[in-house]
Amino acid sequence: MTAPVTLVKGQNAPLRATSIVVTVDLAAPADLSALLVTAGGKVRSDADFIFFNQPDGPGVRCRQPEPGRPWRIEMDLPQVPAGIDQVRVVVALEDTASRFGSFAPAVARVLDDAGSVLMTYEATGLSSESIVIVLEVYRRGADWKVRAVGQGYAGGLAALITDHGVSVDDGAAPPSQPAPPSQPAPPSQPAAPTYQPPAYAPPAYSPPAHQGPASSPAPAAASYPPPPPAPAHSPPPGHMSAPQGYPPPSAPPAPPPPAAVPGEVSLVKGRSVSLQKGQRVSLRKEDGVALTMVRMGLGWDPIKKRSMFGSREVEIDLDASALMFADQQPIDVIFFNNLTSKDGSVQHLGDNRTGAGDGDDESIMVDLTRLPAHVTAVVFIVTSYEGQTFEQVENAFCRLVDQSNNGELARYTLGGGGAFTGMVMAKVYRDGVNWKLQAIGEGMQARTPIDALPQLGRFV
Question: Among residues of the chain, what percentage have pLDDT more than 70?
């Protein structure tokens, strides 16, 4: 068995295998991706950026063996198109506020399809970078070689992929130059610019009539603006679909800032935490183990109206939704007509049109291990599709459930309704490498999640 080749920065070596795997070991959560570039150093299209939400390209794949395990880049070099000169392997820190200089050097390994290590490279000399091209696999005639690169970008992923010709949102910062290895980290480094990967471009949400059970196909979108609301689910009068670039241009004035936040509480094994408005809880169990799969259950009861014929319940059609954000930028909207996020990390379990029955009326699953690295918060809201206000709703609550054992971790109950048609219930958000839950309980005027979008900036 031949000993692995140890590379230093700038060194190259020939490959003796055509099917290889690249892994990177680092003492911090990180994502791997690959850029398929031409001889001019640019991608041919956004499809040549291979990452967790666009994992398959010609001859190159991005894979995570199992949740919580490091990502890997798999290459079948004979399948790489002739117009591709190099495959550049990129490692990005999940926490965009962190820098490579804060950790031991990343170690990249090139393995053959039998798992034998062919080459290793220790990426030393990094400091203020949050993303690095660690290796490149490139053509030399009919053969392939590997070069140790170790080139970092302090401007983050948006800067790197823009330099390679991948499109980003209009609001992204212009590409920055690679950071020199000796550049010290500034005292307070801002997070990398947010961007919206091609596969994440959300549809123009024009909510059609409510669909039936979750398994039923979604009906075709209605034309806008529709006639006034009817008993059947019709979009609100004058409601327009959200444009591709969120948020909509005419945002209503922001409500007053939230009240002072109570202290943070901890999860206790076997006991649900009762949250107050604004209170936070760390999503780690008592033994310090981080949660992975959680379910946000949302519930409400319709008020009972009394008349000379006795009392009756008035059906109140509330809808639970989850909105994913990268800082202030909306990334995806998960609601009754878009049940699963594009990356599969967030799933709505189906629509309830009446609030009838005990327990959760609607539930939304969140796989914390699959949330993309650039997603910083998931905001949970409830909106009144028919326009009834929360004055007609009783016992509205949200609760967080550990899906591994179906145990309730935390619950937040609203103490009375108000003259609003929407409610921001809670959010799950990143705090460094950890996730936390915050109870919010703020009212708003919104009959769909798209109506709510321009009002959510202050919560993220």
Answer: 70
